[in-house]
Amino acid sequence: MLNEKLKNYHIILASGSPRRQLFFKDLGIDFEIRLKPVKEDYPSHLQHFGISDYLAQLKAEPFKEELKDHDILITSDTIVWHNNQALGKPLNEADAYNILNTINNCTHEVITSVCFTTKTTQKTIHDITKVTFKNLTEEEIKYYIKTFKPFDKAGAYGIQEWIGQIGVTKIEGSYFNVMGLPVHKVYQVLSEIVK
What is the model's pLDDT at position 1? Predict the structure, then answer.
């Protein structure tokens, strides 16, 4: 349905995430994957969704000069926010353990920002989901890290994986947002762009 509306546009998804790519396929949207490396640094004064908004926009920068009239570039970033701190992707097993131990037995926020860039405009949206973990044992955390190696995931976990199935006791907001894309909002923005 949306694909028909977007037939005069060229969607560029600048994400190596297989989960985000699958969401776009599931939406029935034709898109091209185009990747450019970006150093994901942000100013230290930024907080909360300000961080993910900034990083989603930063990821669009290397593409701006090459965008054509009917291109819509989509970039995004996900962070886990807990105790006034952004938890990114773990550096190694020890870091993954420390991150999971930090969010263990409490509620944290998963924030995903999505930036839509055309030749002349840019719009950034974000979505926030609250996720509560049970009290995971040390054994459970170590098993998850060793088996699933969540080093490409903000907060060191994927909710769709084993740890989400056995550990998440409550979720407030979009489940798909926790996986890395607030699909309902992306659909809405794309629908508005092509009105």
Answer: 78
Element (H, E) at 12: strand 10-13
- Give the C-alpha distances (Å, rounded to integers) separating 184 from 20, 89, 125: 13, 25, 12
Rounded to two decimals, the pTM is 0.94
Active-site residue set: 77
Which residue is listed with tokens 């898109």? 31
Q: Which residues of 118-146 are buried (b: 16+ CB within 10 A; e: fewer)?
A: beeeeebbbbbbebebeebeeebbeebbe
78 — phi, psi (to 5°)?
A: -120, 135
CB 47 within 8 A of CB 83: no
**CA angle (135, 137, 139) in 5-degree steps:** 160
Element (H, E) at 113: strand 107-117
- Supply φ then ψ for residue 125, to 5 degrees: -125, 165
Which one-letter amino acid corresponds to residue 172?
A: E
